[in-house]
Write a structure and sequence with these properties.
Shape: elongated
CATH superfamily of the largest domain: Zn peptidases
Helix content: 25-40%
Distance between the termini: 28 Å
CATH topology of the largest domain: Aminopeptidase
CATH class of the largest domain: Alpha Beta
């Protein structure tokens, strides 16, 4: 199909959202979602490349000549979380059932509608006003999983092949209540620490002949959770630490256990790094071990460092488009969990903007049909304004 065909009907983002929802793409399955998206984009003149790695499906689609002019990118995912109890759903989770202004289905909010809205906006844009530059979609099937072979694989491939984005939007749901409420310009870092406190098993009637790890884990948990990491920064809330589980597995009420485990999860701002927090956790564990005579081992998993795209050209570009289409001036925020923006930020400036997110991952996940249409208009205006400046 010719790129300069201006008489073609606009791409319907609602229909494309429904088609994507009908693909059962619970991580790591693709369920045909990227096959569908590749077909739609290829027909519109995008050069599509599958960048699969480690059993994960990934798609890179570019309209325009590589290295010619500016390159604007979109990053998103078509994989979804498990459906949970299917019997609790009002409509089939992969049925894309429409009821009034709502479309139901797993991934309706997070984030098949966002992918569909940008794809529809990008196709209409390059057909009607072909830019002097490139429009890129980097779509993964591994955002909800381990995220090691998804967006990272796409960025690795881009570095190897000379592909690039000069700026990028990640289409995660960002708005807390209404379309246009919020743009994410950064994210807190995420670190999980796994402790094992080792003592000596014994009879509870003779505690002096045992070494109980339970008081030690209680002491460590108290010190970690009571510690104030910081008071927040200009763009970030205060860092937090939460004890998420303490596991002993002791079925006997008259036996002092030999060991117990504790897991803590930290969400941290730009005053900290994964290394600095790991060092603090290790020092606290060593101090409690010395005081109690126990042995405490620790392993950590860093999901991502904190990052910030300072307010400037990109956030202004997206913010003005959002305000023009929704009538709301979005707040610039770094709240919430992690997203694949934490990987994209090493490649180019990145912000996140998408739908209202408070129904994502829930039973009866659903999206307002009118919001999908509005999101397409926002993305279309972003593209138009970006290539005009």
């Amino acid at each position: 199909m010719s790129q300069d065909s201006v008489d073609l009907a606009p791409v319907d983002p609602v229909a494309l959202t429904a088609d994507l929802i009908r693909c059962n793409s619970v991580t790591p399955l693709d369920g045909g979602a990227l096959v569908l998206l590749e077909a739609v984009l290829s027909e519109a003149g995008f050069i599509c490349t599958r960048v699969d790695r480690g059993g994960i499906a990934n798609l890179y689609a570019r309209w325009g000549v590589r290295g010619n002019g500016k390159a604007f990118g979109f990053n998103g995912h078509t994989d979804v979380v498990p459906i949970g109890d299917e019997a609790a759903w009002t409509f089939p989770p992969f049925g894309a059932q429409v009821e009034g202004d709502w479309m139901y289905g797993r991934g309706a909010t997070d984030m098949k509608s966002g992918v569909a809205a940008f794809a529809a906006a990008a196709i209409d844009f390059v057909r009607n006003t072909p830019p002097d530059g490139a429009v890129i979609l980097a779509i993964t099937g591994d955002e909800e999983g381990e995220s090691t072979d998804g967006t990272i694989a796409l960025l690795d491939w881009m570095a190897e092949t000379g592909e690039r984005m000069d700026a990028c939007i990640v289409g995660e749901p960002t708005c807390p209540e209404h379309m246009g409420d919020m743009i994410k310009i950064g994210r807190r870092g995420a670190l999980t620490a796994f402790f094992e406190v080792i003592g000596k098993q014994g009879h509870s009637a003779y505690p002096h002949k045992a070494l109980n790890p339970m008081p030690a884990v209680a002491l460590l948990g108290h010190r970690l959770s009571a510690h104030v990491l910081d008071e927040g920064t200009d763009h970030f809330d205060a860092s937090t630490l939460a004890i998420t589980t303490i596991d002993t597995g002791n079925p006997a009420n008259n036996v002092i256990p030999a060991r117990t485990k504790m897991t803590v999860n930290l969400r941290f701002n730009d005053l900290h790094s994964g290394d600095s927090l790991t060092g603090w956790l290790r020092a606290e564990a060593d101090r409690v071990a010395a005081e109690t005579g126990t042995k405490i081992t620790m392993t950590t998993k860093l999901s991502g460092e904190s990052f910030l795209t300072p307010p400037g050209d990109l956030s202004d570009l997206v913010g003005k488009a959002v305000e023009a289409e929704t009538g709301r001036k979005p707040v610039l925020s770094t709240t919430g969990g992690t997203s694949d923006a934490r990987f994209v930020k090493t490649h180019c400036p990145v912000v996140e903007f998408g739908l209202v997110g408070h129904r994502m991952h829930q039973v009866d996940e659903r999206v307002r049909i009118s919001d999908i249409v509005e999101l397409k208009r926002v993305y279309g205006r972003v593209l138009s304004n970006y290539f005009e400046t």
